[in-house]
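If your schedule permits, I should be very grateful for your opinion on a structural question. I would ask you to consider whether the tokens describe a fold that such a sequence might reasonably adopt. Thank you for your consideration; the sequence and its tokens are set out here.
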Amino acid sequence: MRRPSNNPFAWHYNARVLLVVVLGFCAVLVSACKVDATVDVAVTDDGSGTVTVVVKADAEAAKRIGDPAKAIRTDDMTKAGWVVVAPKVNKDSGELVLSATRRFASSKELAETLVDLGSGADGPFISGVKVGLKDSFARTEYSFVGELKMSGAIDELSDPALTEVLGGLPVGRTPEELTALGLGKGGLGTLRVRVDLPGDVGDHTGKKVGDAIEWSAPIASGTAVSEKMSVESVSTQRQVQLFRVLGFGLLIAAIGLGIMGVLRRR
């Protein structure tokens, strides 16, 4: 079987942001690889927003990868509409960090973007996503629902193209080698999803982190994980802005009527 090279980034990349980096790290660094990926979803007042993916590999993995500018290719991410921050090594921690951001205009666009981040044997890591927005007098209600699902198997981090390049092995290692390396003892890292809705947070199924709600799942831990994600919030900001616009309009109208009255008296 054809074994992987020491640097998979030179020959494998695609538009799925998590796979671009996580697969490359884990394909050749399984024993030392610890990769944390965070997906931040920030929703604005009108229901649009941004998705930001931040992937961090530990210092040991960063040393083995070498110069990230040469090792990691992000061409396809850029072509797919992502704004990519050049991968770099944190001088203090030694971690290798890559981040990319993409805008979405609707709930449908957000769902499509999150599905593109990666899939395992049980389907997309993040699926069933919907953002709701309901205007009523003096308030706007927002909601987010979705599912975070990881099969726990190492092959959830691969796809047919990468498997072929790695000699028919999902991450370039035989099952025996993976067992010897201790795969399944805590996994290769953690995938976190954070959602920040406008206004004050109400009911949710996750953990509050700052202004956002977070859900997490271990990567390739050997145990399947499924998290139902939901969060609601209420905001008065849109109505405040509307009242300001209406108030300004009424003020202009009043001034105009006053001027017309003065001119008529003349």
Residues 237-266 form one domain. The chain is about 30% helix and 35% strand. The two ends are 98 Å apart (CA to CA). The CA atoms of residues 50 and 57 lie 23 Å apart.
